[in-house]
Amino acid sequence: MVQLKGNHPTGIVGAPTGQIAPDRMLKMTVTLKLRDSEALSRLMSEQQDPASPNFQKWLTPQEFSARFGPDPAQFKAVHDWLVANEFKIVAENIDQRSITFTGRASQAERVFRTKIVTYSGGESYANATDPYIPAQFADVIGAIGGLHNVMRSMPLSTHSTLRMTH
Hints:
By secondary structure, this protein is of the alpha+beta class. The chain is built from four helices and nine strands. The strands form three sheets. The chain has a four-stranded antiparallel beta sheet. Strands 2-6-7 form a three-stranded antiparallel beta sheet, with no helix packed on it.
């Protein structure tokens, strides 16, 4: 297992107030990395360079996915790993590089080897550490969303007030 770096929120105001309910259902999404990021960077530079034969030669979504999207076998392997861990797949799209699934908080904590703690009396929750994934997916999985909801439940006091002028 390897830790998926940068996949837990930092800078949360306040201390944790408890542990998430083990049976709370979470909707999570695995996002797979793009393949061959060096070739993609080169292509993007060439598409902007008037001297390049690739100048303004844009890829269709299908061409982009075929060249830089996840390998279908790796996509299936991630899908199968989630299913083997008893998560329920609710949506998947190889072109969008995502697999959306549901599971209990206790399941997510066990599989991803992280604790999910609550804030603000239980309304907000977040994984306390970066999740772990099988080493075979270190270059495949880019992010796991849904292990926290702190982006969606910010107190109103952190937003600026809109002032109307007449």
